[in-house]
Amino acid sequence: MRIDLHTHSTASDGTDTPAELVLAAAAAGLDVVALTDHDSVRGHAEALAALPENLTLVTGAELSCRLDGTGMHMLAYLFDPDEPEFARERELVRDDRVPRARGMVAKLQDLGVPITWEQVARIAGDASLGRPHIAEALVELGVVKTVSDAFTAEWLANDGRAYVDKHELDPFTAIRLVKAAGGVTVFAHPGAAKRGDTVPLTSIAELAAAGLDGIEVDHMDHDDSDRARLRAFAADHGLLVTGSSDYHGSRKTVRLGEYTTHPEVYGEITRRATGAFPVPGAGGRPRA
Questions:
Q1: Among candidate residues 69, 122, 67, 132, the one with its CA nearest the CA of residue 97
Q2: Of 33, 150, 164, 221, whose CB has the highest number of CB atoms within 10 Å?
Q3: Residues 264, 272: contact at Cβ < 8 Å?
């Protein structure tokens, strides 16, 4: 089995619609794909309606969190999206995205960048606004060469010159909310130092003691030494180890299935989940 547990669609900051994403995942030879848009489950229905026969969908979200001043992302899988407290918190994060993006545009303008709100809004379309849309505007303007180049201290990285804080969950609260909704939690790309400061391993150990299920180890932002260090840490703390593409369509060079999760780990994630279950494809046929 080939399993990719971290992808994004136009429901947040990817360039593929949810339907396009699941079709692309099947074409890439994946058996299982997770749709984990930022703080949103809006793309799940479209992905399920288009799901081809040879692909299973894991529903999820990537949650915006902050611990001791450091931003981090928490992948949540197979939770009940209608659990009221968790749904309210996701809505608070989403509602903060537009004023935050406007703030970053204003900071960039103060830095002499000829960016406009209209440009960013055009790029985002109906998606949930995020930094990648602003980064794409910087590419259009020739300020940076690639979207990834915008995520530096000079521009949009955590605590970068144009960075603006947003409403984010405390990760201990996030774990509690996801668990209460029957889901499973995995710390996304914990060693991605080029994005900004990272959460120390001592704090991840505290999250593990609070119920964190796993950490994402095989990821494009981790080098070989990162992966070895994180794999050893996971073994010492009883954490599941996942691998994922963090696919964003054309906004990143990474391909669907470039990094994958072992079938045994996937099986354990599905065993722990009680809020929702993986959905096997029906070839686009209506579901009962």
A1: 132
A2: 33
A3: no
Sequential pLDDT tens for the chain (288 residues): 999 999 999 999 899 999 999 999 999 999 999 999 999 999 999 999 999 999 999 999 999 999 998 989 999 999 999 999 999 999 988 888 899 999 999 999 999 999 999 999 999 988 878 899 999 999 999 999 999 899 999 999 888 999 998 889 999 999 999 999 999 999 999 998 877 789 999 999 999 999 999 999 999 999 999 999 999 999 999 999 999 999 999 888 899 999 999 999 999 999 999 999 999 997 655 454
Query: Which neighbouring-strand residues pair with 67?
Result: 70
**By the 8 A CB rule, do 155 and 144 touch?**
yes
Contact yes or no for 265/26 (Cβ under 8 A): no
Query: Residues of 105-138 as b/e, b for ≥16 C-beta within 10 angstroms?
Result: bebbeeeebebeeebbbebbeebbbbbbbbbbbb
